[in-house]
Write a structure and sequence with these properties.
CATH topology of the largest domain: Glutaredoxin
Helix content: 40-55%
CATH superfamily of the largest domain: Glutaredoxin
Number of domains: 2
Oligomer: single chain
CATH architecture of the largest domain: 3-Layer(aba) Sandwich
Number of helices: 9
Number of strands: 6
Radius of gyration: 22 Å
Strand order of the largest sheet: 1-2-4-3-5-6
CATH class of the largest domain: Alpha Beta
Order of helices and strands: HEEEHHEHHHHHEEH
Distance between the termini: 78 Å
Length: 241
């Protein structure tokens, strides 16, 4: 092998090591950023930042809601408590929607939990229904999203019991409800309902029946954000803010 060939081979190896190093660093940075947005497992954030001053209840057809039953615009959200994009909506657009539209009585929010990410999601959906039995649905949902682990992390009954404790539930009643799968049928019915409407991913929103998919930002430069969607829906029913 000539000296020129040896030199070229050495340079190529060096370039490969440099590229591999850059890729490894990039992957590490992304992993750190993702983990930074997650709560630490040693602690379980509770209800410190739970929205207050908003009417909550159950609709006549049995779905948890926030806002006014007389609101002319209704946002129905199909969500999975294990879905990272649902959590993105929870920490992103949702607080502004609640403050500017739900709290003011212009919009009502309804939640439907659909388990699309396997058996842990099924368990979380059933646990949320058990929380609703104690009128703590929104509190449990809040804690579950605030403490949502990575999809690859272990997730089971122990997590759900911790969430229930942080949400202020009676744990004896909760565990009895959860362990007997009291709401297994209801969760399956909600999933079938979602599938019949063409819901194939979460979060999916229906704003007065119009479908929107994904974690839509509250405001979007050069595009339609949730604020635009809600303002248009309110204008269409003559209730513009």
């Amino acid at each position: 092998m000539s000296k020129r060939t040896t030199k070229r081979t050495t340079e190529q190896k060096t370039e490969w090591y440099v590229i591999a190093g850059i890729v490894a660093i990039a992957v590490l940075v992304v992993a750190v950023l993702i983990q930074a947005g997650r709560p630490q497992t040693a602690q379980t954030p509770g209800l410190e930042d739970l929205p207050t001053g908003i009417e909550t209840g159950v609709t006549p057809d049995g779905h948890p809601y926030r806002g006014s039953l007389s609101a002319k615009v209704v946002v129905v959200e199909y969500e999975d408590l294990r879905c990272p994009f649902c959590r993105q909506h929870f920490v992103g657009a949702e607080p502004q929607i609640l403050e500017q539209y739900v709290k003011t009585g212009l919009v009502r929010e309804e939640s439907r939990i659909v388990p699309i990410l396997g058996s842990p999601s099924v368990a979380a959906a059933e646990a949320a229904a058990c929380a609703g039995e104690q009128n703590k649905y929104w509190e449990f949902r809040h804690v579950a999203f605030a403490n949502q682990p990575l999809e690859t992390d272990p997730y089971g009954r122990a997590n759900l019991v911790k969430f229930a404790e942080a949400a202020g539930l009676d744990i004896g009643r909760f565990t009895t409800c959860f362990d007997t799968q009291r709401y297994q049928g209801e969760v399956k019915t909600t999933l079938r309902e979602a599938q019949s409407l063409g819901v194939s991913s979460t979060p999916t929103f229906f704003v007065n029946g119009v479908k929107y998919e994904g974690a839509v930002p509250f405001e979007r430069d050069g595009g339609q954000g949730f604020k635009d969607i809600l303002d248009a829906a309110l204008q269409a029913v003559g209730a513009a803010p």
